[in-house]
Amino acid sequence: MTKGTRPVVVFSQCLGFAACRYDGTMADGAAVDFLKPYVEARPVCPEIGISLGVPRAPIRLVQCADGRRLVEPSTGRNLTRTMQEFASSFLDGVSEVDGFVLKAHSPSCGLRDAKVYASPESLEHEKRSSGLFAARVLERFPHLPATTEARLSRPWDRGHFLTRVFTLARFRSIGASGGAKELVLFHSENKLLLLAHCEEDERAMGRLVATAHGRPTAEVLEEYAERLSHALARPPRRGGHSNVLQHALGYFSERLSREEKERFLAGLYQYREGKGDLALCQDQVREWIARFEEPYLAAQTYFEPFPHAGEGVGFSPSS
Question: Is the peptide bond prior to 55 cis by the omega test (within 30 degrees of 0)?
Answer without folding.
Answer: yes
